[in-house]
Amino acid sequence: MNKLTFNHLLGIKSLKISDIKLIFETATHFKEIINRPIKKVPSLRDITIANLFFENSTRTKISFELAQKRLGSDIINFSSSSSSLKKGESLIDTVNNILAMKVDMIVLRHPSPGSSLLLSEYTNSCIINAGDGANEHPTQGLLDSFSLNEKLGDLKNKNILIVGDILHSRVALSNIYTLNMLGANVKLSCPLSLIPKDIENLNVSIETDIVKALQWCDAANVLRVQKERMSKSYFPNDREYSMLFGLNIDKINKIKKDIIILHPGPINRGVEITSDIVESNNSIILDQVENGVAIRMAVIYLLASKMNFSIN
Amino acid sequence: MSKKILLDSKKIDIILKRLVCQLVENHKDFKNTVLIGLQPRGVFLVKRILEVLNIDFPHLKINNGILDYTFFRDDFRRTSKTISANKTSINFTIENKKIVLIDDVLFTGRSVKSAMASIDSYGRPKSIELLVLVDRRYKREIPIEANYFGVKIDTFKGDRVNVIWDDNSKNNIIYIEN
């Protein structure tokens, strides 16, 4: 079996296609395991993982925790609000203190882009990026493509649309990198004010007419408008955004074809997507959540397999 | 590197028939019994056993599956290789069932130990038995023995026992390589 070509999962950008295939193959086995009556394996019983979440999270945090528990590892959870960071301690000092307690792996979510890279360079641990600002959210990118792969088969030449707040989305970037590597065609659809500068250089096209974009695609990944990251107004109001870019039954009926709908959550129902689309047969939103645990188990397992066992 | 043939197709066929008769003697109608082949090599043996059962005892309906125990192995992070997982397919409950684990070669016993830990994920079986084609005796690292075996052989350190299954069963062969 091949090994991963990296020692830290910092972003999809630094991965190779062989890494993605190995992660998907391993996740398939873990998906079978998490559907057994007893959903646990003992592989990581001698590993301790710290989950460092400096931003709020529901799905990702629970998903990582479940993945770690199902692999048999010990876990410590860290909350920035009740930590010494409030007393002025630096991120690197905080992590080095945690590592001194014999922690083997760090899962980090942080509002600053590049924070995972920083830790990988200045601490002696295995780092998994669980979202760093508007940069990357690699496990989300992997699980979205894994879920698409389950439904569409090989993603080569498949048309995948990403709708929503591309400018502030780490999910969009990780999805673009993963889909590009798997040979899919990627199109973005959102107000031009939410398109990052020079995004075309990432081999994506842009379509501001959402119905045309939906007509083109095999699957649409709908992203939330990230108001918490907006320092100014990028569109007049939610109602107008919803009318022009929100997915609803009228727009889906217009295209007269079945497309797969994804959403990484959390969903703002009635803004970027309506409830009838979320709950339709074409939605694989809950499959994404299930696959998230399997993908994170695979990533943790494969990274741990590169850490040699030491009796000391 | 030399190869010594241990069993040819004809001898393997005779052994398979004997193993099947032993299974039938102990499990009668197989109503509460399941046969589980261990990935990767035990899968071929369970397939051959089912073929013989189907010919010699066509009235029997036998639950069977395949089990991968990769994530239960005790050598994770202790070898330079990343251990590759295979498919598991157990589409029935094993709670209170008599399980026969099937593998081609019994060597250190560690695979069987991992498989027994893995099978617990599907419930609590009534009993677990082990059937192997080749038992490399005196090589056990943990106290595990087979309930049914084809042949017992003596091997040296560094020997490798290979079981080759031919698609049409005419050129099956077991040989020792050193």
Q: What kind of oligomer do you see?
A: heterodimer
CATH topology of chain B: Rossmann fold
The tally of structural domains of chain A comes to 2
Number of distinct beta strands of chain B: 8
Neighbour order of strands in the largest sheet of chain B: 3-2-4-5-6
Rg of chain A is 20 Å
Integer average pLDDT of chain A: 92
User: How much beta of chain A, percentage-wise?
Assistant: 5-15%
Q: Assign the structural class of chain A, choosing from mainly alpha, mainly beta, alpha/beta, alpha+beta, or little secondary structure.
A: alpha/beta
Pick out the low-confidence regions of chain A.
none
What's the CATH class label of the largest domain in chain A? Alpha Beta
Overall strand count of chain A: 9
What percentage of residues of chain B falls in helices of 4 or more residues?
10-25%
**Which class of secondary structure composition applies to the elements of chain B?**
alpha/beta
Helix-strand topology string of chain B: EHEHEEHEEEE
CATH topology description of the largest domain in chain A: Rossmann fold
> Rg of chain B to the nearest angstrom?
16 Å
Order of helices and strands of chain A: HEHEHEHEHEHEEHEHHEHH
* Main sheet record of chain B: 5 strands, parallel
| Alpha plus pi helix count of chain A | 11
Mean pLDDT of chain B: 93
